[in-house]
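Please discuss these two lines.
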Amino acid sequence: MPDMDERAAGPPCDAADALWCPSENHGPRRCGARPDIVLLHYTAMTDAVAARDWLCTGESQVSAHYVLAEDGRLWQLVREEHRAWHAGAGAWGGIDDVNSASIGIEIANDGFSPFSEPQMARLERLIAEIMARWSIPPERVLGHSDVALGRKIDPGRRFDWARLARRGLAIRPQPQAIEAQARIMADAQPADGFLSDAARFGYVASADQQDVVLEALRHRFRPWAFGPMDATDRAIMRICAASWPVSAAKR
């Protein structure tokens, strides 16, 4: 692999203060698609440099638009207008080519450790920049676990979605609304309306995938929760479906 001084040379990056580190693993977005999803991953590798180098090799056949290190360093591997290969087989709403519809950010993390403050602060700026450039609303900031049900769990239970939501960079139902809706749904059947609400929100799942949808929901909104589905899970999904439904325009 070339050294960093050599790799930094190249076209201007889309993101301020990012280092250009080109990956050959990309192509044009298909069928005239433009980015309308920001998709978050964790690297699950030893460090950010190892992840960056792997995503830049033709052997890997994977890439992302950005890699974000623990100390806040940011590399851009693929220009935002191009289709990076980060989502794999996945879907959200009516979108079944998530790569063509998204900008992928790989965050250096092993899946078990907290995300660092410099990393989260730079991520917030990056997401805000991308949202502004492409007019992406906060409900379209998703995790890999949302679009690859049962296959991926990143960015994981340690990722601070609540922090992003407080800054308008993701969505999160208010605790009071969850409590009120949970009281309404307390006497409902255990899975009453759960999958239909999930579909309205954007999850693409078959009738036998209730458990993996529940797992994805908890990764986003209840990372401390385990065990059978309860009224709080159903309340969160109902609020998400009512407040942030996948619009017909996105289908």
User: Anything to note?
Assistant: The radius of gyration is 18 Å. DSSP finds ten helices and eight strands in the chain.
